Fold each of these.
Amino acid sequence: MSQQTGGFTKQMARNMFYGGTAFFALLFAAMIFDSERRIPERSNAHEITPAVIAGKKIWETRNCIGCHTLLGEGAYFAPELGNVYKRRGPDFIKAWMGAMPSHAPSRRQMPQFNLNETQTGDLIEFLKWTGEINTENWPPNIEG
Amino acid sequence: MTNPVLKYQSQSVAKLYFIAAMALFAGQIIFGVALGLQYLIGDLFFPYIPFNIARMVHTNLLIVWLLFGFMGAGYYIVPEEAETELHSPALAIALFWIFLAAGALTIVGYLALPYAKLAELTGNDLLQTMGREFLEQPLPTKVGIVVVALGFLYNLSMTMLKGRKTSVSVVLMIGLWGLALMFLFSFVNPHNLVRDKMYWWFVVHLWVEGVWELILGALLAFVLIKVTGVDREVIDKWLYVIIAFALMTGLLGTGHHYYFIGMPAYWKWVGSIFSALEPLPFFMMTLFAFNMVKQRRREHPNQAAIVWALGTAVVGFLGAGVWGFIHTLSVVNYYTHGSQLTAAHGHLAFYGAYVLVVITLISYAMPQLRGRLANSPEAQRLEIRSFWIMTIGMSIMVLALTAAGVHQVWLQRLPTENAMGFMAVQDQLRGYYWVRVLGGVTFLVGQFTYFASFFVKGTHVLPELKNTTKATLSPQAA
């Protein structure tokens, strides 16, 4: 076996794979466990009201993430909404949702989701709560 | 009819999977070009196919066709490595049709129904899992994926257990089992958005920067063994070192997604350090591929497959390694997070690492599945040309998106006062977006060039047969 003269054998490589993976998987699991414990405080979990929960469901079932980003994740076709409550405020968001689509020729169009008063309110509550998450000061400025 | 090239006749089920993968790939790129145009002509197809729907079709097709490709690869590789017939070819064929029908129905559902209606009709109220990026599939589709995956893994595991266990098949199976296991987190959707995002990355990151890399390594190693004739022992050693580094850096590298979504601050350090090391396994993969081809002990008749394999190693390193590294440090990512730079990296990494490796395997296996050792020189020339057209198209796209991203950060993120708003910035980026569409169309041309190479005739390389006269084999034996 020519490989053995080189010192580093296939068996050693295999052991490095299994051992290294096991070690880092455990380390990862420990950090996830620690993060789990700290998420409530960092996200103000005590402020997750039924309205926030309902709002998250509206957010998901309208596939908002398919155009917008939320805390920087999603599609890059439409503005970041993690801080939209701070940028625009509740009245603007409500008026905006009602006025869609703009039908401005060749401009990007947002669908009309026909949300009722409660649903719009829930969505706004969800965005408000999202804006209070401790994101390490991201985004860098109000424009998201 | 028996196939004179295949060592095990049951490998032929892979052909179905590869054909479906390529058809879905075509759909993915057509929707991709439409999305590129929607960036410029905002109301294109509105309200019939809004951007969010088209994007969901684009990304979901990508995931599904890669899965078809991985499954085809599994059915092709595992019997050959195990030196035994597939446990149940009938199960493989049945699962193929189930998966294809479920996938097609899902896409029809996306296009025909408002998303909220689709959610309501498919039981999203029972278990809310929809509406999260890449995991938009309705509940029945998600359950279907799990069922198909279990059947597939059962079939391959049984095949492997009754035969020889090589490093390639062991690594491939660990990757595939990991893929299925991590997908289970798509059913986890806590009310707390931070927790939701944390587990969401268990699927998304631990797939593409984790277990999929094992599949990638195994496929590349398999093809390199076959086309270079280099000693298995040498290739196995490389494979283990590469995947060891992939997981040792990739697991904690998940941290680069945890910087700004509400997770503890220490992830900024952990993510920065480990994701800065993530290019290492990709760099080793490049060295590996070129080394093996240099040390080759035979000239394989399928030279096109070698081009795809080297392409995977190089473009995978550029996309996943270099373009990932550009914005992976938390101080940089603070400005680039969720910008067009993310899109640039995503496109090049997926193309380089996963699209190309699946095509590498198809390029190697498909001629054999069609009863030849390799395609005619004319067909291979066209195939190699298609590699270059696709790669150039992708490069144009990625460079345009990179420039757009830098410009976007400059206008929207860097200024502390009077930063430009999102849509105003988008207007400034139109020039880059036109170039991106040009790249996308070039890619589409390359893709159809690739498909065309399947139909080029000429003198294919046929096997020498015992007890059979060559006359019984027509040159166009399909």
Amino acid sequence: MSTQSPQRAEPDLLYSEDEEALRAAVRDLLADHCDAAGVIARAESDAPHDRELWKLLADGMGLAGLLVPEELGGQGATHREVAVVLEELGRAVAPVPYLTSAVVATEALLAADAGDLLGELASGRRIGALAVALNIPAGSAYQVVRFEDGALHGELTGIADAAVADVLLVPADDGGLYAVDASAATVTPQVSLDLTRPLAKVTLDGAPGRLLGDAEPAVRRALRAGAGLLASEQLGLAEWTLTETVRYLKERKQFNRPVGGFQALKHRLAQLWLEVVNLRATARNAADQLATGGDDADLAVAVAQAFAAPVAVHAAEEALQLHGGIGMTWEHPVHLYLKRAKADSIAYGTAGAHRAALAELVDLRAP
Amino acid sequence: MTDAADLRRRTAELLAAYPPSRLPPPPSTEDPAGPPPSSATTDRLDFLRARFDAGLAWVHYPEGLGGLGAPRSLQAVVDADLEAEGAPDNDPRRIGIGLGMAAPTILAYGTEEQKRRYLRPLWTGEEVWCQLFSEPGAGSDLAALGTRAVRQGDGDWVVNGQKVWTSSAHIARWAILIARTDPDVPKHRGITYFICDMTDPGVEVRPLRQVTGEAEFNEVFITDVRIPDSRRLGEIGDGWKVAQTTLNNERVAIGGMRLPREGGMIGPVARTWRERPELRTHDLHQRLLKLWVEAEAARLTAERLRQQLVAGQPGPEGAGMKLAFARLNQEISGLEVELRGEEGLLYDDWTMRRPELVDFVGRDAGYRYLRSKGNSIEGGTTEVLLNIVAERVLGLPGEPRTDKDVAWKDLAR
């Protein structure tokens, strides 16, 4: 037994009873209101977002305000609870702007101390979107618009869920972050790889904006939380693809036996299970570190994203392959998961970008 | 029920009766000669024996057998208080097989007499144990073993056979042994579990030199070794079931350990990277970062598993931890040899040594690379463990079996 100085307490990597109860409630709601066939049908329509489901989550359950303090109209919960909600939304590839509005936009507003808007977002009455392209990691350069004569001018692309946003949080070239009413902007949907989290182009042509505060710290905080909690969505997604593939391979027979009995496939699924188990620990760690504001939060987020993205993509790709021809069809939902997983692997920074951040954080520098 | 406060009180009483400041440090695990033969040894053992008798050795064991029937998770309370006072430990690495495998099996299947005879010197480290399971023809297919135990008229058993990959056999006083007692029934049903005396003249231990040059393992030849029936564990023919207890405990012991960040194989290579900028290349940088992330993920998973155990909710993750660490150790140590360039072409020492301990990281990069090759074989091969995960955790169909209803003597060998 070592006699080293005692280590700092490890993060709590388990789920509390309350968190499990929250999970059960969200899962029940999604089972009733977010089936795969519905998501596919919606994805092909002009209105890919599920506003009814959003209303149930935000209004009915108050989940949009988990990160917002109670005195501002929120639930005063933490990133740990948000992570549990995102796990379930990931399992269902639910087409709701939860990550973008209730996490990323909310974190930006928390940084800017924008009380009234926080209350509106928390209640779900309005949906917010940070007008930074989805692929940008915290700490990287992002596009800004021009602030001139008291109005905003410019074009921003790759803005996730902007199509349903009521308020856009726009960084400008004067270093400020502005709240812009969506009705004052032109939002043009882009054809997106991920049908369930569509991107849009935002054009501002002399739009009025209300200055919220400095953009840089708000954007940094928002993107860090987005990246860290995205790992929980990726966990839910990977879990669904694994569970569903295992279920299918127990039923599907070829050569007069269940396909899941062939060792070559058993080993692939066991490997995948192990990856998902590891993903759960990294995602839980990131959520806990964000919740407690620990010194290791940057590190935990970088580890979680560097690990989660490849695992979620691998899980979805394996699910497609192991479903055989059925996996290649539009009617089977596995494609929704593959598209979400691949888009998620770029969202808030690629695994490579997070590894580069890590190299600095843990002093493993490039040559 | 014994609670944490009660355990802390008992620990304080033990410390008061045996103040650890008077005790010498435990024998160095690096020093193969062990501690000097002075009265110091007696002091250390006195403390350990007193700790055992106070029920603070393994608190979840029964009273009188080193425990108090307390929840397993409360051991951490006792250990923390003892460590803070500098109390000697029982050198758990050196006696890992006894602690992790023999003890839980004896507790589950031993007679009262057996428990009282074996558990105390096992825990204090006075008697080292080894495990005589694997054979040249029975590794992953352990139940195919051929070592025979034949019952004599007086009730004793005479054992003949050969075992292999036996760590610690050269320092062990006792061994857990499985042998075939009925060749006429299918292989899993004709096995019986014994305790073997390693000092018996019929037991011959030969070092087995490995790819590292070391002889950490042994071959054990068993010739007409007489084992009294009083050293049988469990019923005749029930040995496979008893062995499952041993093997399940082995896997629990492998998972659930607490590691600091960079506490595993990634530590030495990360230090080399930091201290030797001249060795860095872009290709190695990418691979190192990827492995660093995977090592941290595995560490967090082990920590999560530990927290589950403490909370009394053991998860199936333990089944996978050995798989993860085996792969990581191999990839990371392989990377380190490359990182060292010209130095990677050298090796510290090929002299055959017989270490008392399994040493995964203590030598140079080349040694780590070679030793880690065993990680995916020892304690269950990666291929077998993947099957176990697939079948027991994911519920996928089992492998087709052609040996289930065939008498052992009729199996192809």
